[in-house]
Amino acid sequence: MPSSQVSDKDAEAFDYTSDHFDDHIIYGGWVDSDTLPGLTIQDHGPVTLPLVDKTEADRLAARCSSELRECSSFDDSSEPSLQNLLQLEASEIAFSNPAWKAGLARLAPVIAEHLAFPGVELVLDLQQLLLFSAGGPSQQLCEFGSVDGQFATLIVQLPSAHNGGHLIVYEDTSPVVHDFGASAGTTQYACHYAVLDVKAESEFTRVTEGVQLLLVYAICWPRGSVQTAYSFEEGIRTAMAARLGQLSDQERRFCYLLDEKCERHDLLRLGPAGIRGIDRHRVLSLCAANDSLPKDRRYAFFIAKADCSDECSWTSSPEFWSRSVIVGRLIKLNGEPVPGTDPLPYFFGDQDVLNPQRVSLASLWHGRRRTAYSQYYNEPELSAKEVRYHKRILIAWPARSVELLQSACRGEMSSNLRLLATKPSLVRLVEQLNHLKTLSKLDRRPFPASLFRQELPTELLSRPFRRELFVLFTELFETAEDLLDGSTGWSDLVSLSQAPKAWKVVEIPILQGFTKDLYTTVRALAISLREDSPAVQSLLVTAVVQGTQPVGARLLESPTQRKVWRVALALPELAVCKRLVERHLECGGAALKSCIVELLKAREEQPEVYAARQGLLKPLFQCRRAWLQGEHAKASQAIEGEEVWRFSSASFQRHLGVQAFLRSAERTAVLRGFSTQRSARKLVKTCVEENTAPSWSPEPSEAFSFTARAGGRGASSYVLLTKTDEYPQRRERKRLEQLEALEQELAKLAPVIAGEGIEAQREPRRADVSTDVKGQHKASGTSNGSPSAESRRSKRVKTA
C-alpha cells in the first residue's frame, strides 16, 4: 500500500530480501589463488591465463561480439564509446579445469555466510563473460540482474595484465570502490571476486592499458525454493483486499517502482507471472487481492517506463534534490499496449508510492542510473549535476475512471475541450464534470484544471440555464487560485456576474473560495481597480473583510505588498484598509519591513490619500517601532568577560565534541580517544576546512574561529583546540552594524508616528545635506536617546 497507509503486517508480506543488503555494500576477495578455470571459448579455443600477450588479447577481442543482446546488463549500448565493451554468453564458454567448479562450490557457502544465510545452498549461475579493452569511456554503467530468483551478483576477474577497471558501487551518493587486487599488485596472478546486491548501482572505471576479463554469475535462491519464499497467505490477501477497497473508495491511485526490468514479450507470454524476481510476487499478490473485490471497486494495472531526473548540488542530501518524473507508454499486464505514445505527467505524490521496504524515496529510485550532466565550479556548494534514473513502474488506477488515464495516453490531455466543441448532451456533460470533480479531490490532480476551466464558463453560459451545471462548476473549481487561473480568469468571473441566474448560484461558493486565500483576493482586487465590475469587486471586498486565513509569506513579499496597500488606499471602503491592518498586525513587527517600506512610499507619493487613512495605518508603524526598540535593546548589550569566548551559535556536526567545546566559555580544550595519530590528523584537517572562508565570500560564514593541532602517538594521540579572536571581532562588527541600521529605521518612523506631514519632513532633510556624515550619525543616535553607532564603531573590540 502507499507508504502513508501501509500497515506493518502488509509491509512484511511484501518485504523478503531487503534487510540483507543494507545500502548495497560490496565485499570480495580471492576465489582460489592456486586455481585457474581452464577457460575455453567456442570458435576460439583455450585462453591462456594470465592474459598478458597483446596478440592473443586482440584475437580474443575480435572473437567477442560487440552486439549487446536485448535486455543487456549495460545501458546505452548504442553509444560508440561502448564498443570497447565486448561480451559472450554463457553458452559460448566452457571450463576444462574440474577444480574450478569445486572452487566455486566452496565459495558459495562463504557468500551465504557473509550475507546472513548460513546453511542456504545458494546457486551460482554463469551469465556471461565481459571483456573491457583500453580506450573505453571513463565509466561503464552496469546493470546486473535478469535471472528469476536472483538477488545478488558475483563478478570474478580473471588474471590479466591491465590497469584500471575498478568496480564502483554507490551507497546513496557515496561510492565504494573494489579494485580486484590492484592495490596489492595481484590482478595478474590470481582470480579476484566481488559480490554486490542485484539492485546496486555500479560502474567500472576506464581500462587504460591491457584487457580486463570478467565472469558474471547470478547468485540465486536454491532451485525450487522461490515459490515457497513467495507464498501468499489467505489472511494477508484478505487484509490487502480490504485495504485496496478502501483506497478505491477514496479514488486513490498508486504506483510501485519495480526492482527488475520487465519486458513486453515476457508479459505477452506469461502475463503478470512474466515479471521477474520479488516484483512478480508482489504484483501477483496485488492482482489476487484485486480480483477478490467487486468489479466496481477494482483497480486496473499497467506497466510503464519511468524516467526520473534529479537536479542537485554535489553536497546536498538526496532527499533535498529537485526531482521530476516522466512516464512513458503504458502496457497492460497481458502485454497489450495502451493506444497512444504521448509521455504522461507523473500523477503520483510521495504518499502514492508503494513502499513495502519503507525506505526513502531516493532509495526507491536508485538503480538504472546514468549521470547526464555535471557542472563544476571552484566551490562544491555551487557545483551541480543531473542524475537520471530509468525504471519500470507498476501503475494502479481505479478501473471505473481508467478512461481518463487512457485518454492522456492518446494525447487527449485537452479531450475535455474537444468534448465541449462537440456540443455534448446534458447527460454527457454532467457525467464528464462529475469525473473531473472526483479526481479534483485527490492530493494531486491527474489533469490540470486550467485545461478545462477557461472554456467551461463560456460553454455553460451559452446553454439554457441549468442549475446543476453551475453547481458542478463551483465544486470543480472551488479555490480562488483555480477561479483566477489563466488569461481568462478575471473575464470569466465578470461574465458570470453579468448572468443573474448563474451568479445567484455561484456567488456564495466563489466568495467562500476567496475568503480562504487573501493573497489571490488582493491580486483580484488590484485587477478590479482598472476593470469595471462592481459585482465582482463587491464580492472581493466582502472576502477581505470576512476572511480568516493568516497573512502568508507570499503576501509579505515586497511586490505583493505594493499591491496590498495600493488596494487599501484606493478602495473607498475603509473596512478593507482596517481589515488588512489587523491581519498584518497579527504577523508581528519583525514581518512588517516590506509593509513599512511600501507605506512610506505611499506617504510620499500620495500624501493626501495617505493622510485620509493615517489613523488606520499608524498601528503598523507603532508595532514595527516596538519590535525595533526591543531589538535595539538586545543589540546594545555588548558581550564581555568570559562570555566573549562562548560561541553559542556554533554548529559543528562533523564532530560533536568540537561543537560542545565551541559552545562553552573555555578558550582551549584537548580532545583524546583517538586510536591512531592519523585519526587525530583527520580531525585537524576537518577543522581547517570548516575555518576556511569560501572563495566567493570575504570572510567565513561559520559562527566560530579556532585552531587545531594534533599531537601524541598511537592511542595517546590528541587534538589541541584553541579559540581565536577573529570570530568575536566579526560578531562585534555585525552588532554595531545592526545597531546603526536599527537606529536609522527608528529615525524614519519617529515623524510618521508623531503625525508630522510629509512637507514638514522635507525641509530639515534639505538642511541635512550640508552637514557632515558624523553629524548625521550623531543626530540619528541621539534621536533614540543612545550614543551614536559611529562613536561606538571607533572603539576597539576588546577580547579577553
Structure description:
With 800 residues, the chain is α+β, with helices and mostly antiparallel strands. The chain has 5 domains: 17-220, Sandwich (Jelly Rolls), CATH 2.60.120; 230-403, no CATH class; 414-634, Leucine-rich Repeat Variant, CATH 1.25.10; 641-693 and 701-724; 731-793, no CATH class. 42% of the residues lie in helices and 18% in strands. It has 30 helices and 23 strands. Strands 1, 4, 6, 8, 9, 12 and 14 form a 7-stranded antiparallel beta sheet that branches. 31% of the residues are buried. The model is unreliable at 1-25, 66-83, 226-231, 442-449 and 763-800 (pLDDT under 50). Residues 779-789 have a biased composition (Polar residues). Residues 753-800 are annotated as: Disordered. Residues 759-775 have a biased composition (Basic and acidic residues).
Ordered list of secondary-structure elements with their pairings:
Blueprint: H1 8-14, E1 27-30, E2 39-41, E3 45-46, H2 54-63, E4 85-89, E5 93-95, H3 98-114, E6 123-133, E7 139-142, E8 150-158, E9 162-164, E10 167-171, E11 174-178, E12 192-197, E13 202-205, E14 207-220, H4 226-229, H5 234-249, E15 254-257, H6 264-270, H7 277-291, E16 299-313, E17 322-332, E18 344-345, H8 361-365, E19 369-375, E20 384-398, H9 402-409, H10 415-421, H11 426-440, H12 450-453, H13 456-462, H14 467-476, H15 480-483, H16 489-497, H17 500-515, H18 518-528, H19 534-546, H20 553-556, H21 558-570, H22 574-585, H23 593-605, H24 607-635, H25 656-663, E21 668-671, H26 677-691, E22 706-711, E23 718-723, H27 726-754, H28 758-768, H29 773-782, H30 789-793
Antiparallel strand pairs: 1-12, 2-3, 2-5, 4-6, 6-14, 7-13, 8-12, 8-14, 9-14, 10-11, 10-13, 15-20, 16-17, 16-20, 17-18, 19-20, 21-23, 22-23
Helix pairs in contact: 5-7, 11-14, 14-17, 17-19, 18-19, 18-21, 19-22, 21-22, 21-23, 22-24, 23-24, 24-27
